[in-house]
Design goal:
- With 527 residues, the protein is of the alpha/beta class.
- The protein has 21 helices and 14 strands.
- A ten-stranded mixed beta sheet has the order 3-4-2-5-10-1-11-12-14-13, sandwiched between helices. Strands 6-9-8-7 form a four-stranded antiparallel beta sheet.
- Helix 1 packs antiparallel against helix 2, helix 1 packs antiparallel against helix 3 and helix 3 packs across helix 4.
- The longest helix has 26 residues.
- The two termini are 36 Å apart.
- The structure holds iron/sulfur cluster (SF4).
- The site of iron/sulfur cluster has 13 residues, from helix 5 and helix 9.
Length: 527
Amino acid sequence: MIALKDSIGTEFVERVRVFFSENGPLSKAKNFEFRLQQQEMATAVAKALEEERHLVVEAGTGVGKSLAYLTPAILFALEQHKRAIVSTHTINLQEQLLYKDVPILKKILPVEFEAALMKGRQNYLCPRRLERALQQSNELFTGPEQNELKRLAEWARTTRDGSLSDLSIEPDPKVWVQVCSESHICTGKTCGQGPGCFYQQARKRLLSSDVIVINHTLLFMLLGSPDQQGERESGYLFPNDFIIFDEAHTVEQVASRQIGIGISQYGLRSTVQRLYNPRTRKGLFTVMRDAAGVRLAADLVDEVDKFFAAVESSCDFRKGREFRVRAPEIVRDTITGRLTALQSRIAEVARRADDEFLKAELQELGRRIRDARDGIAIFLEQCAREYVYWVERTGKTAQFLSLNAAPIDIAPVLRRMIFREDCSCVMTSATLSTRVTRKRSSIGSRILSKKRKDAPLSSSRIIAACIRWPIKWRNFSRERNSIFLYKEAAPHEAVCSSNSRQHRAASSLARTAFGWGWMFRARRYPM
Ligand code: SF4
């Protein structure tokens, strides 16, 4: 592996630099315009990948960031037999990458590569669950829901890829949730990967791709816990992969949500109603003809609403959709005992089920009930240390609530999960160092220090930081551990003094990404 890495050497960086030069291969693309910032950014990405370091690049609109990271990422992935994961926050950017940038590079790059979009598995129809739902439709669905199920069954015969985006009309979520692919239900025992499985087909396509485009939420969901990531020998999602975060200004927020706790009133209600819905008298307890389970679930639907109504009356939402909870026991715990009783009942009924598929469905709901109970207990007691707690209104008309808790300082978590040694991660955005969101400030995060607020920089600059983690002072080298500021207004090279605005902003940016920023030197480079 070392030999391979050495074989690329600086020749790889030089090749990327030439690709973006005035007369390089990219100049043959339609509407090409030479941009020094783009060339510098591509070179910095190539260098970071080659040296297995992490990189933060802030570049304003118009720099051409996506080509600047895609090109070195594709070349590096192919030459090193790695996989490039490109994570974005918005669907628009995913579409731009897959339908505009990738086709350009397919024409110009002297190599063949494949790129694919990774969707969450719940986006795919599970033919096995559909078949079961059709068999049990009288016990599980109301009349209109049965019609919706039939529509989905018709569509399943003709769909291209069995994913939600191939459906012309959005399905009823109550029906879709019972027929989509689910990891805990999809096991060798229950299915064994049927040949007509849309999810498995999509997975095969992904595994043969060199570049995988994904969104931040799904990425953090798949990354699992910091401990799980810490145990990995290499890579993040696949062995030997590397990640490029575009729109990286949202990474902290998304990571906090995924790593933290979120109990939604809507989600909890739906889970209980899948067991038994007192309004429609349908559910899995009806399929299993379990009267005790039916009674427990029927009572719990009301109790869930009463509990959240009590939470709502203890919050003040006059200033917005979020309310910070500063002390434990915002309301009396009237619900965790009932959730425990329901979970035990589900376990009991699942033991009796001889049908493996039904057993897996029940166990999955039992797991969700347990997670909700644990989350509510932690929220009410505020027993997770160094966490911030808040209640949020959710839903189109803000008719539901969610209870949330997230680590106050996400930086140590990101260091363990993302900025690991022997991995490469590139973060880029137009607004990395100047972001101060209302949410962050309102929930009192320490991530955005006061310095952040007074450190706005011109959007024309690129900040790139090549950093090896962990840095030891005795190994500190200006060449290897620097933040580079490229600014049009600074036509000459100058070392920023330690109290300059630029240095503070750069440090703040690095602190966001790496947990510390005070040990960097910042330099301006001529444009
Ligand atoms: S492999 Fe999983 S997703 Fe595919 S049909 Fe079987 S259970 Fe469903």
